[in-house]
Amino acid sequence: AGLPRLYDPGFATTAAYSSSITFIDGGKGILRHRGYPIEQLVDKVGFDELSYLLIFGALPTAYNLALWQQAQSQRVTLPTCVRSVITAFSPSAHPMSILIAALSAMSASRTSLNPAYSGQTVYSDAAGRREAIVTCMSAMPVIVAAIYRHTAGLPIFSASAVPHKQSFATRFLHMLNGGDQSKSLANTLDILLMLHADHEQNCSTSAVRHLSSSGVDIFSSMCGGVAALYGPLHGGACESVLRMLTRIGNVDNIPNFLERVKRRQERLMGFGHRIYKNYDPRARIIQQEARRVFEVVGTVDPLIQVATELERTALQDDFFVQRKLYPNVDFYSGIIYKAMGFEPQFFPVLFALGRSAGWIAHWNEFLDDPDRRIARPHQLYIGVKGPRDVPDVTQR
Ligand code: SDX
């Protein structure tokens, strides 16, 4: 309650939602989840605690954390229809397209969690809501790992291979390649999942809220979130950043590239943000993590030199300074994912894996709102005034 439900002239033509999950001050580069600054959360807790905080509103006790991890690690069986949908795609298909289809298959397979089959009650009682949340949180790593293995031409693991009571990141990496994970790799992934977990009313989260408002099941709402995130201006940017850095090739080509950006023949992917007109706090953390990863893997990817020099040059250039264009969360994340062995087209899927915690939190918050209504943004009609008569055929 408080903010106008769907439309206010001050909000141009987009819907306005009220939420207590995440606070952003774009001018100051501040990001807080339930009041906790992202910098402290990354220092002191992991993705499992953060996902619990976003969804249930408080940091978990050690006991609740163990239950949260155990509940997810007990649901790691990929439904047959979801496996069939994933493997029906060519391994060369874009993994975000496969993820959308797989989540839709989940919607059809978990009928007890789908109001279309069981009526609205499934979401109005606490047990049904919790079952939907845990099923969705645990299904994402299972589905994403299966898509990764299928697109890499590898057999999809059976559920039994997954160790119990592990962190979300460790469980996911285990489902990815079954081997013992380097603690450092799991720690880096955990930080990346945290930095992508939630970001208030971004395009994909608002899509999930819109879909949720019609009463559709959680998996179908998530399909909409993934589809929005797929776009190169949103989650697809991390993939575009890596392709841009590869195209630039070396630091000598940066001045010419930036001139093309100023002539609007290129876009500086990974720069700019609708809300942040200052440094994206997540970009700072990811930049530090990128340097730490390269110390661990022992090589420094030449692309990080290009990225660092590109950032340094752009931040001194009036074109970017005047437009308050700073690196955003996507500028460095792709370099780390690449160092971890992922291909560019898989980067937005990893973004979706972290963001699933935020989507579920907003879905849950929307259902808790006693005076929730179906989303119906106001339209500013700018067409022909009318009414006017349809001309006879002879006059057309
Ligand atoms: C994410 O909303 C969220 O929170 C998203 C996100 C999340 O966590 O969910 O933070 C994740 O999506 C981050 C953004 C990733 N996308 C990119 O990196 C793509 C490149 N960035 C841009 O396309 C752009 O900055 C947006 C889409 C991110 C923001 O666009 P806006 O706020 O609508 O800005 P704008 O298009 O109104 O641009 C203002 C000016 C324009 O110049 P003028 O026409 O006024 O002269 O800045 C220019 C733009 O041309 N501009 C850029 C630019 N971004 C804006 N010019 C070159 N390169 C860019 N990246």
TrEMBL record:
Residue numbers annotated as active site: 273, 330
Annotated keywords: Transferase, Tricarboxylic acid cycle
Pathway annotation: Carbohydrate metabolism
A matching Pfam family: Citrate_synt
Biological process per Gene Ontology, one example term: tricarboxylic acid cycle
Family listed: Belongs to the citrate synthase family.
Name of the protein in question: Citrate synthase
Naturally occurring in which organism (per UniProt): Gracilariopsis chorda
Lineage, top ranks: Eukaryota, Rhodophyta, Florideophyceae, Rhodymeniophycidae, Gracilariales
